[in-house]
Amino acid sequence: MFEGLDRRQRMHLIKFVCSFAWADLEVQAEERAFVARLVERLDLDNEDRAQVRQWLEVPPAVDSVDPMTIPQAHRKIFLEAIEGVIAADGEVSAEERETLSILQDLFNG
């Protein structure tokens, strides 16, 4: 699934996932565990892992997660990963649902 993504694209993906983990203004333990599993699957190096830890402490800047920068070919992968993180804690908040809906509309529009 992630084999076609280079390092920059993998970091772009994990940044989006981390930003969605913050959609309800707090990152749950289950969301952190999801991100940790995703980091393993993405095979990130130590420097990139440190950056991900920072994004779980302080959300990525809003202007650094522009959905229009996601190439058409990668949008399905991004959506699946984002859906995974927001469902990780077993509860999808109204904020998470709304933010995901906006992203889906942007991708489909």
Overall description:
This protein is mainly alpha-helical. It has five helices and no strands. It has helices spanning 7-21, 29-42, 46-57, 75-87, 94-108. Helix 1 (7-21) runs antiparallel to helix 2 and helix 1 (7-21) runs parallel beside helix 4. The longest helix has 15 residues, at 7-21.
Relevant terms:
109 residues, mainly alpha, globular, single chain
Number of strands: 0
State the order of secondary-structure elements, H for helix, E for strand. Answer: HHHHH
How is the main sheet built? none
CA-CA gap between termini: 24 Å
Task: Offer a quick outline of the entry.
This protein has 109 residues and is mostly helical.
List the helices and strands and how they pair.
Layout: H1 7-21, H2 29-42, H3 46-57, H4 75-87, H5 94-108
Helix pairs in contact: 1-2, 1-3, 1-4, 2-4, 4-5
